[in-house]
Each structure stands twice: as C-alpha cells, then as structure tokens.
Amino acid sequence: MKTLKIWIWVIALVMIIIVTLYFNNFYWKLTSINGLSESKTDWGTFGDYLSGIFGLFNMVLFAFLTWYIFKSEEERSKRLEAEQKRRNQRDLDFQKERSENELKVQRKILLTQIRLNLLKELDSGFGELANTNLDTLQTLKKLNLLNYQLLNIGIRKNYLFQGINESQLNKLGMELSIQLTFYRDACKKDNTDIMIEYYGNDFLKLIETKNSFTTLIEEFVFNDLDK
Question: How many Å apart are CA 73 and CA 127, to the nearest integer?
Fold first, then answer.
C-alpha cells in the first residue's frame, strides 16, 4: 500500500510537469489577441499533443498496474506458503508430541505389567509355601524359587523401580532372604521341630515381612502411574 501511494504521487507529479511544459511552449499558439485560436491546425497540434501524453500515461499506468498486481500476488503466495509451512510444522510437532506421549504411556503400561507380574509371582510363591501338605522336597523347591524371585527383583530394581525407597526395599528384601534361608536350612536337615515352630510363629513374621515388602513396591507402582 505504501508503494502504491508513492507511485500515485510520482505519476501525478509527471502529469503536472507535462501540462506545465505544454502551457510554457504551446499556450500562446492557441491564443490570439481576440481570444482562443480558431485555427484547426493549432487545435489539431494540441490534440496530437494530448493524445501522445495520455497514450504514454496509459502505457505507464498499465505497466505499473501489471507490476503491482504481480508483486501483490507474489507477496500473497509467499504469505500463503509461509502460513502453510507453519501449519505443517505445527502438525508435525503435534504428531511428534502425540507419538512420544503414546510411547511413554505404552512403556509405562508395559513396565507396570512387569512390576505387577513380579509381585504376583512372589505372592503366589508364598501362598503355595503356606500349604502344609507339601513334603520336604516340594517345600525346598518353593523356597529356592522364592529366593530366586527376590534375587530377580534385587537385580532389576535399578531400572524397574527407579525412585523407590531403596534402603527400605533392601532392608525388607534382606529380612525375607534371611528368614527363607533359615527355613530352607531346617528343611534340608529335616528338623521337624524347627519346621513346626516356624509354621507356628516365625511363618507369620515371614508373611508380615513379605506383605511390607510387596506393599512398598505396590505403593511405588501406583504412585508412578499418577506421574
């Protein structure tokens, strides 16, 4: 718009200069002592002069309008292209963010399933251990499996349970391991008295320790889901 105003002023100035030159050079030829000239030749010359001026003006105006429309369309195309690029970039950013969020959700779901499966296996193992109908060999197998499951949790805690109260987890895990080892040694010696005493009192303590251990992990898992 600013360029258009400048060109309008330029064209107006040129026209003023042309008209001024005309009056300066030809005015006296069209006038006489008694008024305007009655000569057809003088008026013909005047008409030819104006025709040339307006022809030149029309040509300049046409060229200017053509250039102005071209520039306007070019700027409009650039604006549309820039706007389209911004839209495409926003769409790409949105899709990227959406994909990243979906991956995070899927990873969290998978991680939660792995964590809960470990707890489920541990609970199942302790539940089977409480079966008094198991013989010594079966009990030893269950105890070895529980020790393995505890060891597995301890090995994988650095990436499965990042942010958990590690000192508390280690403390409860160690207590469970010691109690299971004590019970396993009694089974190996086939010491019935110790095993009966264990089932009477110490087994309850073992279950309480296990419950504290699994509760600590469960609280961490569900708190992690809310993040």
Answer: 79
